[in-house]
Specification:
Elements: E1 10-13, E2 30-33, H1 39-42, H2 57-76, H3 78-82, E3 102-105, H4 109-120, E4 125-129, E5 139-142, H5 143-152, E6 156-159, H6 173-176, E7 183-187, H7 196-204, E8 208-213
Parallel strand pairs: 1-2, 3-4, 3-6, 4-5, 6-7, 7-8
Helix pairs in contact: 2-4
Length: 219
């Protein structure tokens, strides 16, 4: 038979659950969030247990591979060859990785790992975070002035930030305009980091040449 809420020790939680008020669970010790991201958890004021973060090395490795794959895809112009249908020989010689500045926004576990891998391939990597960080082989920037510098140099831009009230809509029209003309944007992070209308406008005028997104803002 169902147990009363105050006798429950642990909760496995998905933000789509019908249960939104956790105040009756007075004895709960921990809540396991099944979904990606923390925005739905931290926004629920009835979840009063300390927030713990689980780090999965396999997830980190997979994210690094995804970021490297799409960075190299755009860097080498692979789509240009895949999309040709006329079988014409049209050679295109991309710059070397060391000639293509790359910026990662977010220097948490995932951002640092991706930065290390891409730096190892020769890219000049800059990383931005809200607070100052020190990552070997990476030009670390922080704060608002650091964000401006990070974007201005980003021929390739990878977003690996969490979604918070401060990062929602971070890539708006003003910040997209800071990117070098024809920049590449890659977002394996949260969808609402990007102002969709601003990105479409930037793509239309060529400010952003290509965008690869793993996620989108919910309709």
């Amino acid at each position: 038979m169902p147990r009363s809420p105050e006798t429950i020790d642990y909760i496995v939680y998905a933000p789509s659950s019908d249960v939104r008020d956790f105040s009756p669970f007075t004895g709960v010790k921990a809540v396991l969030n099944l979904w990606a991201g923390v925005e739905d958890v931290v926004a629920n004021e009835t979840l009063r247990v300390p927030l713990a973060r689980m780090v999965d090395p396999g997830m980190t490795d997979g994210m690094v591979e995804w970021c490297v794959a799409h960075a190299m895809r755009h860097h080498l112009g692979i789509d240009r060859d895949i999309c040709r249908r006329d079988a014409a020989w049209d050679p295109h010689v991309p710059p070397l990785a060391r000639e293509r500045p790359l910026t990662i926004l977010g220097l948490g576990v995932l951002g640092r790992a991706a930065a290390g891998a891409l730096s190892g391939l020769g890219f000049p990597v800059a990383g931005w975070s809200r607070t100052a960080k020190d990552v070997p082989g990476v030009t670390c920037l922080s704060g608002e002035s650091g964000l401006v510098e990070a974007l201005r140099r980003a021929e390739l831009l990878i977003l690996l930030l969490p979604l918070t009230p401060e990062t929602a809509g971070l890539m708006n029209s003003e910040r997209l305009a800071l990117l070098p003309k024809g920049a590449i944007l890659i977002n394996p992070g949260r969808g609402p980091l990007i102002d969709d209308a601003a990105l479409l406008a930037a793509l239309a005028r060529g400010q952003v040449a290509h965008a690869t997104r793993d996620v989108f803002r919910e309709a």
